[in-house]
Amino acid sequence: MSERMDMDVDAHPQVALVTGATSGIGRAVALKLAENGFDVVVHGRDPARGASTVEAIKKAGSTQAGGHGGHGRFVAADLSVAADVERLAAEAGRVDVLVNNAGIGWFGATPDLDQDTFDTMFATNVRAAYYLVAALAPGMAERGTGNIINLGSMAGQIGLDGGAAYSATKAALAALTRAWAAEFSPSGVRVNTIAPGPVVTAADPELIAQLGSTTLLNRPAQANEIAEVIAFLASPKASYVTGTVIPADGGRSAV
């Protein structure tokens, strides 16, 4: 058997909700989980990019043996708006794997960060994850199985000049992971954080390249490299892993 989940897709398809799934790491995660047999709820703010991701999932699914790849559907929501977070959880329905990937970043001198940007960043990166877990984890616990995977960052583990507020949001996710594991893992729900280092995306390639040069591997990661770790955490192969922060940062946090 491949990395696809051992499931009867007709009787009970496994559902993964991936936030921020229309680009970068989130899109790579959505495609990988669909390849592994999940039905994926693709979250984002841009309907065109959402439709593109869903189409990519459908194409990948049609190439799987017997056409049994996962399926996708798009739900638009602005995670900085509390009502949108509540609606996203409701529209997602039953979720077996929640990947809290969506987030925004800001880097610069501490005095230069305005309060609106600060509040939006914490609302998107921390509050949204908190209330998605609040909405979806109790159902997982009742069923006795589930997975919550939070996207942290090496910035939450080490000090980065100019990254105080962003780093605080990622450190918060690591703390929430430990607390949620204590709360939900006795009921069968595994909760983990992956802490990537610099990842090649469309955003600020010069900064990403510079940060990549500080890692032990002397390069940034590709989004699919992070997606592979998340797919592992979502699979039965990680059945004894919970409450932890897993670095995927090219060794940067080791030194």
Describe the structure.
There is one protein chain. This protein is of the alpha/beta class. The chain has one domain (15-247): 3-Layer(aba) Sandwich (Rossmann fold), CATH 3.40.50. 43% of the residues lie in helices and 15% in strands. The protein contains 7 helices and 7 strands. The protein has helices at 24-35, 47-63, 82-92, 115-143, 164-184, 205-212, 223-234, and strands at 15-18, 39-44, 72-76, 97-100, 146-151, 189-196, 245-248. Strands 3-2-1-4-5-6-7 form a 7-stranded parallel beta sheet, with helices on both faces. α5 links the parallel β5 and β6 (189-196). α1 (24-35) packs parallel to α2 (47-63), α1 (24-35) packs across α7 and α4 runs parallel beside α5 (164-184). The longest helix is centred in the middle third of the chain and has 29 residues, at 115-143. The model is unreliable at 1-10 (pLDDT under 50).
At a glance:
This protein is α/β, with parallel strands linked by helices and 255 residues long. It has helices at residues 24-35, 47-63, 82-92, 115-143, 164-184, 205-212, 223-234, and strands at 15-18, 39-44, 72-76, 97-100, 146-151, 189-196, 245-248. It has one domain (15-247): Rossmann fold (3-Layer(aba) Sandwich), CATH 3.40.50.
Would you spell out the secondary-structure blueprint of this structure?
Elements: E1 15-18, H1 24-35, E2 39-44, H2 47-63, E3 72-76, H3 82-92, E4 97-100, H4 115-143, E5 146-151, H5 164-184, E6 189-196, H6 205-212, H7 223-234, E7 245-248
Parallel strand pairs: 1-2, 1-4, 2-3, 4-5, 5-6, 6-7
